[in-house]
Amino acid sequence: MKFVIRKLKPQDKEQIIPDGGGLYIRVRSVTEGGAISFRFRYLLQGKQIWMTLKAKTLAEARKERDDYKKVAKKGVDPVTEQKLLVERARAAQLAEQAELARQQALTSVSGLFERWVMTDLQQRKDLAEVQRMFAKDVLPIIGTVNAQDIRKSHVTDVIDRIKQRGSVHTSRNLLKLLRQMFKFAVDRDIIEFDPTASLSVSKVTTKNTERDRVLSQDEIKLLNEQLPAAGLMHSTQAAIWIMLSTLCRVGELSKAQWKHIDFDAKTFFIPVENSKNDKAHTVYLSDFALNQFRFLHSFRQSEIWLFPNTKDTDHVCEKSITKQIDGRQNSTVYSNRSKANQALVLPGGKWTPHDLRRTGATMMGNLGIHGDVIEKCLNHTQENKLKRVYQHQELKAEQADAWRILGERLTLLTGDNKNVIPIKRAS
């Protein structure tokens, strides 16, 4: 028969050539193109039925015929079985495509982090710092692991590595960030469960001890004596006194622009984008604070920024001032940051820029300023919901008076008491 097929030629009419066992070779006419196909004829419940086979060769057609004959003997319609085969093949193809899509959806931790950044973190003020932390401590360790394969052991490995180098504060903040990222992934069905859900921040990283360091008045006097020989930049020296006298945060000061300082109105404006709690804030400058801004202005290196970076393309890194202060308080180990590594060591122990803010607020309280006014000066968000909703008084005059009283006390403590009005305790 193989020989016959080779010899078959299309004719004017269609040819149906039997091969036996219900198999027929169909040769289309010349006008229909002369194509060759295979057909199978069978009986089912007394009815004669024809079906076209999918085979391309005679050998394939004979095998397909034999398979369908077995199906027909079981009382199953071969045509129906052929349709089912098509559906099964399609279902298998769809399953394969679904599995491929699932595999492609497997997101590495690096990919998850990138998606989290693009979706949720674009408005975060500390975005650059978050990216730096992940690039340093997370992605090199678990960045290539599929996010859905991450377990507690992966997370604790990252955290333990940070703790081993003594950076407990960083380990705590990073665990909080990892928890936020994996919750983001759970909410979007990228992963099924959060591997950090059962990890206690306090147990894994050690408890976050709230600082209560406040510089005494004697320490402020001593600080005033130490600063000239500490080897700090003029701008950093001014920053120390500004933070103490205005209660502003180091980040808010680091990002300040000259347009935010009004020397005539004696104000320092902190816009929403610079404020930690997204609340714009106006500081009414005491003469003490105003003099520090004037001192800073006399050494200005930028027309825009109070504290520019080296290229004057942006503000200085928010950690710059903190690092300079920290580098002058290394009382046991020599610091490569400064030869004067003990220049700012004070009797009460190590102090930070945030401690200056706390010290200024404490001094206000000791000088009789009402707590609500101090909270306004600190630009704190009111924790009491009823007060937050119903009390919107700004207490501007009271704030200005509070800063004035603080400034006068600082003037006395630093020895520059020319033309200082005697302090009046607030009622």
Summed up:
One of its GO terms (biological process) is DNA integration. Residues 210-404 form the Tyr recombinase domain. This protein is α+β, with helices and mostly antiparallel strands and 427 residues long.
Overall description:
Residues 210-404 form the Tyr recombinase domain. Belongs to the 'phage' integrase family. Pfam families: Arm-DNA-bind_3, Phage_int_M, Phage_integrase. One of its GO terms (molecular function) is DNA binding. This is Integrase family protein. By secondary structure, the protein is an alpha+beta fold. It folds into 3 domains: 2-76, 2-Layer Sandwich (Double Stranded RNA Binding Domain), CATH 3.30.160.390; 109-205, Tyrosine recombinase, N-terminal domain (DNA polymerase, domain 1, Orthogonal Bundle), CATH 1.10.150.130; 217-413, Intergrase catalytic core (hpI Integrase, Chain A). Helix content is 49%, strand content 8%. It is built from 18 helices and 7 strands. The strands form 2 sheets. A 4-stranded antiparallel beta sheet has the order 1-2-3-4. The protein has a 3-stranded antiparallel beta sheet with strand order 5-6-7. A hairpin with a 2-residue loop joins β1 (15-20) and β2 (23-27). The chain is rod-shaped.
Task: Reconstruct the topology from this structure.
Blueprint: H1 2-7, E1 15-20, E2 23-27, E3 36-44, E4 47-52, H2 58-73, H3 78-105, H4 109-120, H5 127-137, H6 139-142, H7 152-164, H8 168-187, H9 201-205, H10 217-226, H11 234-246, H12 250-254, E5 261-262, E6 267-270, E7 281-284, H13 287-298, H14 320-326, H15 353-366, H16 371-378, H17 385-390, H18 396-413
Antiparallel strand pairs: 1-2, 2-3, 3-4, 5-6, 6-7
Helix pairs in contact: 7-8, 11-13, 11-15, 15-16, 16-18
